[in-house]
Amino acid sequence: MDQSIDRPRDTVSERRQTSRHLTVYRTARMCIGDVQRLMLVKNLSSGGLKARIYEPVPVGTTITTELTNGKLIEGTVVWADTPHIGVRFTREIDVAEILHLPFVASTALERLRFPVLDISTNGLLRAPRESAMVTVHSVGTTGARFDWPALPHHDDVFLQIEGLEPHRGHIVWEGDGMAEIGFFRPIAFATLAEWATRRQPLGLRLAATA
Which among 2, 30, 89, 162 could bridge 75 via Cys, Cβ 3.0 to 4.6 Å? Predict the structure, then answer.
């Protein structure tokens, strides 16, 4: 199977380097409507990408890829060979610019490493001699953001997010009734990617829009 992404020939010499397929192995966030997923981008060109995904995505699906926080790239799945897909971008991108953009942290999760999934779920926060149920709003491999309960402040706590193992971490930020935890041991990327498929079933979303 030819898994290259068809793209127009680039005739501008100074952009020739960014038009090639580059092997990048870069983590990214993928959005299909309001469903968020993690993906591992393996090849990237000005016209498209090849990525490892964690559930089937049908050919013809419109997706938005976020390789760098805040930089959204729209495209369409043009081939699918589980666990990989090929995506053709709606508009060509400058690969060098995308790969060398300085990291710009989000204001909501400014201490957590991108990509972060904005998926609300339940969690159990355990501190010395106390515990409380919390609402978790965002989860990344390195930490999470959640409602801070009416507990005395503790720097080191355990957070068990529904569907994941408990993770010990340090409270890195607290304010406006919210808090962020930085995990001492990151969640494995594949583990978090598979967790997202269970929390937001893509099949139900695609069926609803069919």
Answer: 89
State if pTM tops 0.70. Answer: yes
Q: Could you tell me which of 28, 102, 95 has the C-alpha nearest to residue 67?
A: 28
Rounded-to-integer distance, Cα 87 and Cα 48, Å: 5
Write out residues in the chain with pLDDT < 70, as ranges. Answer: 1-20, 101-111, 204-210
**Closest Cα partner for 112 from 137, 131, 133, 148?**
137
Q: Is 177 helix (H, G, I), strand (E, B) or coil?
A: coil
Asked if residue 7 lies in contact with residue 45, where contact means CB atoms within 8 angstroms, the answer is yes
Closest C-alpha to 124, from 174, 164, 152? 164
In terms of C-beta density within 10 A (0-12 exposed, 13-18 middle, 19 or more buried), how is residue 143 classed?
A: buried
Q: Give 53-80 as a DSSP string.
A: -SS---TT-EEEEEEETTEEEEEEEEEE
Do the beta carbons of residue 61 and residue 21 sit within 8 Å? no
118-172 residue pLDDT tens: 999 999 999 888 999 999 999 999 999 999 887 777 778 999 999 999 999 999 8
Asked if 180 and 112 count as a contact pair (C-beta separation under 8 A), the reply is yes
For tokens 């990214």, name the residue: 28
The identity of residue 146, as a single letter, is: F
